[in-house]
Automatic annotation (TrEMBL):
The protein's name: Copper-transporting ATPase
Ranges in a coiled coil: none
Residue ranges of the TM segments: 6-26, 33-56, 62-81, 112-132, 210-232, 239-257, 269-290, 297-326, 346-366, 404-424, 436-461, 473-494, 515-533
Top-level taxon: Bacteria
Lineage: Bacteria, Bacillati, Actinomycetota, Actinomycetes, Pseudonocardiales
Length: 699
């Protein structure tokens, strides 16, 4: 293990924790549920504010700017908190008092209650390790290149922010890396976070990798624990049972294939993966926001701005989930009273979110029509297939195309949780959220082109892998309810006989017996199947990193990037195809490439014109003129670029083919007049282009 193996995760952890934690402490928040749920989303919200601030002339997005913005926001929050305490007479926030709880979960003695809470803490720590380990081992090193398609744009954005210090939403994604224009809007929450991390340790690739690993691993685990605690707090359970349930949810979440591992494996859909991983924590914050908790509302609003800036589709993810939660709560007197008390502060949170993410919202509106216009990515399936695969959490996707493998233990626990809710009539909101997304996913799989599921799927490019991932977001909550409620039922059953042998009279202590059963079940789950899930997740991650099934970018690309970095002069560009490793020359070495979007960009027609016809420059004066105007000095070609889907996704359908590997305009570059080989390593060749020769052709 090297120093980098330790330093990069530590820096990433500090980046995700310090801003959000400082703001909450300044606001007087001491509720451990909120600290677990809202720290990472609030930190991303701070980075979004810092990104907007970087648009001020002379100000760059940097660690220093983030520190200044964090301190200023924390000072404002702290000042308001003091004013509320000393002038408005508002007491400092404390954790809510224990509820009486349902009769089947008796109170524990103070000693056993403390042991239960310590056990819950141990569960969470184990879960954090289990969730992080697949990424630590599967990446094979924090600077390992991601091989999937979508990560091309993500890493280019991280590199652009690092190289230029520009982080405002209207500056991202630039299609010309020299002029910064035109701009095709792309959500910036994840790139801003990754760029900051990379600036502090390891560079853009390491920053991107560690932020993904922490977000879809430990942050997701803690968010699931917080959501479980939030739901059970509404039921009125005592703190020790809430803690144990949260720990159970964390352990179950740690081994899940979805959302994080699946989305990053099948396409490299990092923003969606991170946004879904932040979702449980955000929902926990929303449903536990209390009357007159205005400073918490401000932090929640900042967190909402942060998660929206990671991926705007969370409007549907969070919005639909919370609406379903509220509808379920509206059937109870306590739920209706809570909703009435929440509305004013929730509106305050929404106002803060709208201000902090205003530019992100405006940019997203321009992309909304495009998002909903995609065709479904799966054919219709039979009802039994749709129900079975969603209930049993089959892997599916590129890893398991025949759906042989499943996370059946987690799926069965969620189903048991549904039965427990029905039998005890406690936890309807949890059942409603899980059931809603289960029905959406099933309906989408049955009828991807029309119907309720397809309508919801429009927020997610009608991509089944994205829709189905929502089910897993609520599996830990349902599994925790199952284990806690079933353990309580067993303890009640074994204590019910009127006569017990002397050695078995301890079984009448239902509280300790329930807690003991929960611990035993948790340990058993970790031992099997938890460890098996962790090992398989590590194997799946490695297929896109340490032991890739295909190579888009590798050591040859690294060598080519370094060769170009020492030769490209200011104002010169490199012709390339973004479907190979060429964009990483920009990400790591600040070498300006022509294409950062694999099929070219509609806002910059020259990008796909060159992809189609670059090698026609000896015969086509228009192509020659474009090359000279862009001052293209080098041409980057990888003869073994991976296959990707294209078809009608190409601007103006210029490709006319369903798949894409090497750009047609770069297939016959060798031997053209005015061009010579400057560098070659493996399948990667960098050609030097003689500007004078092209000018002579035009004369």
């Amino acid at each position: 293990m090297t120093a980098s193996d330790i330093a990069v995760p530590l820096v990433g952890l500090l980046v995700l924790v310090v801003p959000g934690l400082l703001l909450q402490l300044a606001a007087g928040v001491r509720d451990k549920l909120w600290l677990a749920a809202m720290t990472a989303p609030a930190s991303v919200g701070v980075f979004v504010v810092a990104g907007v601030t970087s648009a001020i002339p002379g100000v760059s997005y940097s660690p220093l700017l983030v520190v200044v913005v964090t301190v200023v926001l924390a000072a404002i929050v702290f000042g308001l908190a003091r004013w509320r305490r000393h002038w408005a007479g508002t007491p400092a926030a404390t954790e809510p008092a224990d509820g009486a709880g349902p009769a089947f979960l008796p109170a524990l003695s103070p000693r056993f209650a403390l042991l239960a809470k310590l056990g819950a803490l141990a569960f969470c720590l184990v879960a954090i390790v289990l969730a992080f380990q697949p990424w630590r081992s599967g990446l094979g090193g924090w600077e390992t290149y991601p091989q999937e398609h979508d990560t091309i744009i993500h890493t280019v954005l991280v590199g652009f922010i690092s190289h230029t210090g520009e982080g405002a939403p209207w500056q991202l994604l630039p299609l010309d890396m020299i002029t910064g224009e035109p701009v095709s809007f792309y959500p910036s929450g994840l790139p801003l976070t990754a760029a900051l991390t990379g600036d502090l340790a390891g560079g853009p690739i390491a920053g991107f990798n560690i932020v993904n690993a922490l977000m879809v691993g430990p942050v997701f685990v803690l968010g699931c624990a917080a959501l479980t605690a939030a739901v059970l707090r509404r039921i009125g359970l005592r703190a020790e049972w809430i803690a144990l349930a949260g720990g159970i949810a964390a352990i179950v979440a740690a081994g899940l294939y979805r959302p994080g591992v699946n989305l990053l494996h099948d396409g490299g859909i990092a923003p969606n993966a991170v946004a879904m991983s932040l979702t449980p924590g955000i929902i926990a914050g929303i449903v536990t926001l209390g009357r007159s908790q205005w400073l918490r509302a401000a932090i929640l609003g900042l967190g909402l701005a942060g998660i929206f800036s990671v991926h705007p589709s969370v409007v549907a993810t969070v919005g639909a989930s919370v609406v379903v939660f509220w509808l379920a709560e509206a059937f109870t007197r306590q739920g209706r009273a809570m909703l009435r008390s929440q509305w004013p502060v929730l509106l305050g949170a929404a106002a803060v979110a709208a201000v902090a993410a205003a530019a992100q919202v405006l940019g997203s509106l321009g992309q909304a029509g495009r998002t909903g216009s995609w065709l479904p990515d799966i054919p219709p399936a039979a009802l039994g297939d749709a129900v079975g695969t969603n209930l049993m959490l089959t892997y599916g996707g590129y890893y398991d195309s025949k759906q042989v493998f499943a996370q059946a233990a987690a799926g069965l626990l969620a189903l048991a949780g549904a039965v427990a809710v029905l039998l005890t009539r406690k936890g309807w909101a949890a059942l409603a959220m899980w059931g809603f997304w289960l029905l959406v996913s099933i309906d989408f799989k049955i009828s991807p082109g029309s119907g309720f599921g397809s309508t919801i799927g429009s927020f997610f490019y009608k991509s089944y892998v994205r829709v189905q991932a929502h089910v897993s977001v609520f599996v830990p909550l349902m599994a925790a309810i199952a284990i806690v409620f079933v353990a309580a039922g067993i303890a009640r059953l074994v204590a019910s006989p009127p006569k017990l042998p002397a050695f078995a009279r301890v079984l009448r202590q239902r509280g300790p017996v329930t807690a003991g059963l929960i611990v035993l079940i948790a340990v058993g789950y970790v031992a099997s199947p938890g460890l098996a899930y962790e090992h398989r997740n590590a194997e799946i991650v490695a297929q896109r990193y340490a032991k890739p099934e295909f190579v888009r970018v590798g050591e040859d690309d690294r060598k080519a990037s370094e060769w170009l970095a020492g030769r490209v002069q200011p104002g010169e560009r490199v012709m390339n195809s973004a479907n190979d490793g060429s964009t990483y020359a920009y990400t790591e070495e600040d070498v300006p490439v022509v294409n950062v979007v694999t099929l070219g960009a509609i806002q910059a027609p020259y990008t796909y014109a060159l992809l189609e016809k670059f090698d026609d420059y000896p015969r086509d004066p228009q192509i020659r003129r474009t090359i000279l105007d862009l001052n293209i000095r080098y041409v980057y070609v990888d003869s073994q670029a991976p296959t990707m889907g294209a078809g009608p996704g190409a601007p103006d359908n210029w490709l006319g083919e369903p798949t894409f590997t090497v750009a047609p305009g770069l297939e016959r570059v060798d031997g053209l007049p005015g061009i010579s080989v400057g560098f070659r390593s493996g399948s990667v060749t960098v050609y030097e282009l003689d500007r004078g020769a092209l000018e002579n052709m035009s004369s």
